């Protein structure tokens, strides 16, 4: 059978790659040398993958099992070459991996870029540029690769100038793995230099567990054919802590997390006894771009006896701690551990439990000793941590102490109030922790439900993150004090009332009997009940839900997302001392009263972020009233 061989073909970059390349070249000029780290990281990942696959099939090594990365340069040709004998890529892999961006959320990410180089370079850092960083310094990149186990003739060359797409051509490559030649731009010659490359490698790649080699020099300083290892090549997590400096931990973090910024904190542990493992866990300083995507790309790197097994995003950390990065290296798991085994393995379970404790302990320490950094952490990852009490009952108490909120005490959007702070400010008679949930901070802060609390100077937590309803459901109580929504159920604040207040209230209640009855008749099936409010001081009415009901703005969101929401009827509460209600009481025209009643009800729904069933009807009634006033 005649073999159809593709000689050379031209292909286009995915639109997003073009955009990213353009931005990168223009935003990252102050950080050019990171291309070495990015390419070395990829090479080391490729070696890890081969080592893992070779556990079940060691013919993949093709007789060369000493995994390594080689870095070479040619001053005259103005090139830098980075080579690995890792897993390599097939033609199809190259098309899928290089020239396209498989990351979900890429479009959204690109739309966030502002054109301001400094800001964008930060964002690009979070996104991770990987292979494309080659084009910061090169005007042509040639990548030659062959998948381990394939025939030498199945190799392929990919080439691009970063602007007009790329070419793919079949070739022959004896060694498996990948070689990348960077043809440096005229003004980036400085990188084709022995000293410069060595120093970049030792800065960024000293502690990756693989040797990075460069050509040895002879006594006269001339390059020889021999290779020497230029990084320390020790798996950082296996080193005793006393050998390591902060910078070592920081650079290693950047390598494994594909991040550019230093982490906020880390915890390095060596566990011996029943189980033996080492862990190195980091809290990043910036949320990765995919933190809110359903699936994350990076997570914890699982090693077994120093052999990389897989990036795990599900089994070694709970979902609410999905931002944690690092390495766990076990001596107890079998080398051929699979994803399925990970899901129900008691060794994994124990390591996970202990690692969660480590992370929570690390956060506790930061919250206590380094408030500024903790606030930074909270602003980036607080919403993820808020998923904790619902997800991890066993650590609920500990997580609760780490939570930060906005409250009427500060009235500021920045979440700084702890539950312990709140409890310490509770009134003597107060037994519950009051909160309100709303779609935005402004609507929480300005909610009519808060009026009486402000008057009586009782603090209320202002919750406006999407996850907050889920949080309060999971948390239920703190320090023996129940969390109570100020917008749900009958509110009894009588214990905070003076005798005089109580008497006044009774009179108001009595006086309101007539209008309450009238409103019930008019609103009929729309409401569960109409009653006098003990919540309002300056608004005429508000909506109150049952204890178990989801907040109205959440019901709206769920409906929009296509969920069927059972609609329990709400309670309308009115403030009989409000001039509007007093004016209504005096109304003798039934039709007019009906319009007022509906408007009163609808506007209370609107204030809760609910959607009106008949918005046009509401507007026309309002217009009718306005015309009468004019
Ligand atoms: N040296 C290599 N050997 C084998 N495969 C490679 C190599 N370099 C890159 N790849 C493949 O190309 C893919 C894309 O690489 P790229 O560096 O763009 O992104 P990444 O490493 O997946 O993520 P990040 O952007 O976070 O670095 C990799 O996931 C890998 O599958």
TrEMBL record:
The alphabetical list of record keywords is: ATP-binding, Chaperone, Cytoplasm, Nucleotide-binding, Stress response
* Residues passing through the membrane, by range: none
Domain of life, source organism: Bacteria
Q: Where in this chain does the record put each Histidine kinase/HSP90-like ATPase domain? A: 31-188
Give me the ranges of the annotated region A: 1-339
Q: Name one GO cellular component term.
A: cytoplasm
One Pfam family assigned to this protein is HSP90
The subcellular location is: Cytoplasm
Q: List GO molecular-function terms, semicolon-separated.
A: ATP binding; ATP hydrolysis activity; ATP-dependent protein folding chaperone; unfolded protein binding
Q: Where is this region: C?
A: 557-630
Task: Report residues binding ATP.
Answer: 38, 42, 84, 89, 97, 103-105, 126-131, 178, 339
Q: Which InterPro entries does the record cross-reference, listed alphabetically?
A: HATPase_C_sf, HATPase_dom, HSP90_C, Hsp90_fam, Hsp90_N, Ribosomal_Su5_D2-typ_SF
Alphabetized SUPFAM superfamilies for the sequence: ATPase domain of HSP90 chaperone/DNA topoisomerase II/histidine kinase, HSP90 C-terminal domain, Ribosomal protein S5 domain 2-like
Would the keyword Cytoplasm turn up in this protein's UniProt record? Answer: yes
User: Keyword Nucleotide-binding on this protein?
Assistant: yes
UniProt xrefs under CDD domains: HATPase_Hsp90-like
The cross-references to NCBIfam families, in alphabetical order and at most eight, read: PRK05218.1 (NF003555)
Similarity comment? Belongs to the heat shock protein 90 family.
Role according to the record:
Molecular chaperone. Has ATPase activity.
Q: Which PANTHER family match?
A: HEAT SHOCK PROTEIN 90 FAMILY MEMBER
Oligomeric state and interaction partners are given as: Homodimer.
Q: What is this protein called?
A: Chaperone protein HtpG
| Organism whose genome encodes this protein | Cocleimonas flava
Q: Which gene encodes it?
A: htpG
